[in-house]
Amino acid sequence: MDDDRDFAGSLTDILEPRGYQIAEAYSAQGALETLKHFDADVALVDIRLDRNSGIELIARLREVRADILCVMMTAYAGVETAIEALHQGAYDYLRKPLNAHDLFATLERCFEKLRLERDKDRAEAALRSRNQELEEVNARLRKIVESAKGLAVRSQWGEIGPHLLEEFAQNMAAEGGSLFLREGESLVLVHTLDPGHAPGPSPFLCGRAPSSSRP
């Protein structure tokens, strides 16, 4: 963003061969319009834009794209100017004429900062999602505990089995399931929610069962 079109064009010539995607703007209003269709991560902003202040433009740019990083460019950089730019939200500033090494180093810092912030956002989103899943599981388990209180009035497996299985399946969102008891070396079917999927008596085998959505 520079009202000197030749200078803006020279920056494009320097940056595009390095893989950067560039859009040029030559006024404050042009910069705002450009951001409506160009998904910019970093803005190189001249301190003076067609009689307007580039520093004052920072807040307006962030209204369009909240996470954009602004780097001020100026040939008039004094300590006061730099401090003002940073106070207004600039990430850094560069002095004209630009040194290519300083330019690329600044851009690398910008994109590293953006990468770290986005990684942090993704990690926080994943943590929130995991916490929500745990809360849902805990809520289901609490319902199972509450339902289990009803077992106190039941004394036979013929009564307990169906009640326990149905409550567990409902609270864990299972599509079906069966309940077995071990008798000697066999497993005996006590109750099933979907007859036909489970056998009757079957040999008891020790080992780890495969994962399943059925309780």
Ranges with pLDDT <50 over ≥5 residues? none
Portion in strands: 15-25%
Report the average pLDDT across residues. 81
CATH class of the domain at 5-117: Alpha Beta
Structural category is alpha/beta
Strand arrangement across the biggest beta sheet: 1-4-5
| Count of β-strands | 8
What is the helix fraction of residues, given as a range?
Answer: 40-55%
H/E series:
HHEEEHEHEHHEEE
CATH topology of the domain at 5-117: Rossmann fold
- Please tally the helical runs, counting DSSP H or I stretches of 4 or more residues: 6
CATH superfamily of the domain at 5-117: Response regulator
What does the radius of gyration come to?
Answer: 33 Å
Q: What is the molecular shape?
A: rod-shaped
Span between N and C termini?
62 Å
Oligomer: single chain
Outline the biggest β-sheet.
3 strands, parallel
User: Do you know the CATH architecture of the domain at 5-117?
Assistant: 3-Layer(aba) Sandwich
